[in-house]
Each structure stands twice: as C-alpha cells, then as structure tokens.
Amino acid sequence: MSVYKGLLITKNQELLNDHIQQLISEESIDITVIAEWKRTFHEQQFFHYIFVDIDTIDFPHQQQASSGSILIALTENHEFDLARSWLVAGAKDVIVLPKEASRFKHLISRTREQYQFQKETEHGIGTGEVHAFYSAKGGSGKTLLSAIAAQSLSIHHESKVILIDLNAQFGNIDVIFGVQPFRSYYDLIPVMGEMDIRHIQNVSTIHQETKVTLLTGPANPAKSENLPDELIGKMIRVARNHFDYVILDLPSAMNNMTFTGLNDATHIHYIITPDSLGMRAYQYTEDLFERFQIGRGKDLSLIINRYHAKSELTKKDIEKIVNKESKGKFSADYFAIQPFINMGQSFYKKKKDKGNTKVSKEMKKYIDELKKG
Ligand SMILES: Nc1ncnc2c1ncn2[C@@H]1O[C@H](COP(=O)(O)OP(=O)(O)OP(=O)(O)O)[C@@H](O)[C@H]1O
Ligand SMILES: [Mg+2]
User: Distance from the CA of 264 to the center of ligand 2, in angstroms?
Assistant: First the structure.
C-alpha cells in the first residue's frame, strides 16, 4: 500500500519510464504526473513529495518553499548553477539521474523520518522548553556544552531535541556533529510570515547517530548581517511547539539574536570559567540582565566549565564571589574531548552509555538532575 503521495512534473515521458518509475514504486509512493506547474494542483490535494524534472520544467518564480511538500529536483545533467537556484528556491536536494539513484533512495528514507516525526508531534507532545547556553566570555564552552546537552537529552531521555546555532557566522555546531548542512535559517526569510515546522525541517539536518535536529546559521558574513530581527523569535516559537527541547547555542556578543534568545529562553545556563576573566564577565552580565530585565522569573543555572585541580578559583570561591550556587561543574578535559570533535563523533552511543570523557559523564549527571527538576 502506498502511504505517500508524489507529484512528478515533467515533459519528458521517457524520464519517467527510464528511471523514475521503478525508483518510486520501490519506495511505495503513489505518483501523479503532470507536464506543467499548476498552482491549483497541490492546493487541491496534498503531496508528500513534488519531483520536478528541471531539464524540461522552468524555474517557477512563485513557487517558494512555502508548501508543506518536500520538493526534489531531478536532472540528467549536472549543471551547478541551475541546481543551486532550485536549492535556493526550496528544493530539498537535486538528484542527477541515473547516476545518483542510491542518493535518491537515501533522501526518501531520510524524509520519511521527517514525516513520521511530524505525525508524532502534531498533537503537541512537545513540552517546548527553551534552554539557552550563554556566557559573556568567548570560548568558555557554550557550543560544546550545548551540543553535549542536546545529545544527552535525545539519547538518554529520548526527547525530541533541536539545537539552534545562533552564532550567525561560524558557530561550529556542524563541526561537533560532523555534518555539513547546506541550508540555514537564512533560508527561512521568505516564509517568515507563515513559518511552520515543515519549513524548519526543510532547512535543518537530523543527525543520524543522535537524532538531534540541527539548525545552523548562514556562515556568511553578508547574509548574517541581513537576518531580520523577528526571524529568530519566530523560529524559536515554531520550534518549541514541536520539540521537547529547543537548545540555543548563543554567541557571547550581546546582539539582537543573543538578546532574543535569552529573552525567549525558559531556562538559561550561564557558563563561568574558574578565572578572574570569567568572573568579570559574569558580573557584567548580571548588570546587563538586570538593566534589560532578562532572566527574570526563569531558571538561571550557573555552571562552571574547564574546571581543574589547579584552577585559579575553586567552586567555593566562585559561589562566594557571585553569591550564587553552581548547578554543575565540568572538568577541563582537552585531550579526551578533542578527538571526538575532530572526528565529529557523538558523545553517547546509546541510552545506557555515560560517555567516555569526564565532561560527557558530568553532562549526563547535569541533565539527569535537570530532568528531575
Ligand atoms: N571542559 C572542556 N574541556 C576541554 N576543552 C573544552 C572544554 N570546554 C570547551 N572546550 C574547548 O574549548 C574550545 C572553545 O569551546 P566552545 O567553542 O564550546 O566555546 P564557545 O563559548 O562556544 O566559544 P565562542 O565564544 O567562540 O562561541 C573548543 O575547542 C572546545 O572543544
Ligand atoms: Mg560557540
């Protein structure tokens, strides 16, 4: 039985006969073929997949990523510019046939997961907590700790987790997960007014090993300057309706994105390093939070990162100086951690796995505590 409906748009009947027919029937997709884009067509009926033969069908100017269908471009030639413009217009991928038949299959099975996931979350199972990892001091471990926290929530607690990299440029989440996302939240700008979970899924990547959904920034200075102010807030709101946890990796600089992230967070994890610079940054942040009324009425947990026996300040010193108890302590563990990052490996493999590094063990404990509330 075919559960999925597909629309194939092509003027080339042979394409259908030669390659597509078999591929699609193996994936049990019910296919309808038309020779022209017709707006009304997918307004009347919902298609899970829209396959466009981009060799015979022109670029549709009206057709943005705005319909909930997954758009897949098919071609027999490898023409980079054409492929690119389709990707920008919202195609999930461009497949060169018949060469990339196996990539086609892989793409279909990946998107299946996406639909499965939508079904599970449609009824608002997600509790939608928003956890921001922040520190006014750069390099203190925001990216690393937010990534390991996301992995622990997903693997140990089987929660639905999205990790959003709000460093509009070069946030490095992709490096830690060993993925190369082609798209970013920059691509959500055209659908900002009508954004729903499918748009977010179309521009994000599900990390296979951990099932964490990753949404990254444009990694392009010109583009990151052009992100509209409302984009981030919208994105967080839509995401929290569908995920149990929205994890934010924030930049240290207090820009609009940082501000929105902190403001929309239900829980802030402030990372402090056990040295005077770390202290100074925290005290500065406390003032700032006070002035802008950030963090009011929400949980703010202080966590110490890069702790070691010879730290300039002990846990007690820190708590005394800032007059606040710390909720977690993460060891400086450079040599154990670096290989994981270099290889893009996940820190946990399965539910019972506490991880092989001090930091991953400490994170599991931290998240277990957090879940207990
Ligand atoms: N507890 C730790 N033990 C060992 N290495 C760590 C630890 N925490 C972070 N690091 C390493 O320190 C470097 C900086 O960490 P990370 O990128 O997570 O910081 P950040 O706060 O996100 O930095 P930025 O302000 O540049 O975004 C990375 O190479 C990371 O692997
Ligand atoms: Mg970072």
Answer: 19
Residue 364 tokens, joined: 């599991």
d(CA 147, CA 71): 30
144: CA distance to ligand 1 center in Å?
A: 6
Residues 192, 243: Cα–Cα separation, whole Å: 19
d(CA 261, CA 240): 13
* Closest to 189 measured CA to CA, from 66, 332, 35, 11: 66
Residues 6+ apart with CB under 8 A from 38: none
H helix and E strand count, the chain: 15, 13
Q: Which residues line ligand 1 (CB under 6 A)?
A: 135, 138-144, 167, 172, 251-252, 305-306, 330-334, 337, 341, 359
Instruction: Give CA–CA dist 263/230, Å, rounded.
Output: 13
For tokens 């009425």, name the residue: 297
pTM for the model: 0.74
Q: How many CA atoms are closer than 13 Å to the CA of 252, on its beta-carbon side? A: 15
pLDDT in tens, 58-90: 876 555 444 568 889 999 888 888 888 888 777
Residue 18 clears pLDDT 80, i.e. is over it: no
pLDDT tens for residues 170-185? 778 999 999 988 899 9
- Determine how many CB atoms are found less than 10 A away from the CB of residue 370: 20
Could you tell me the domains of the chain? 4-121 (3.40.50.2300), 129-372 (3.40.50.300)
Q: State whether the Cα torsion 191-183-177-351 is positive or negative.
A: positive
Q: Which atom of ligand 1 approaches the CA of 336 most closely?
A: 4
Read off the pLDDT of each residue in 34-45 and give the average, rounded to a whole number: 69
Count of residues in the chain? 373
The separation between the first and the last C-alpha atoms of the chain, rounded to the nearest angstrom, is 45
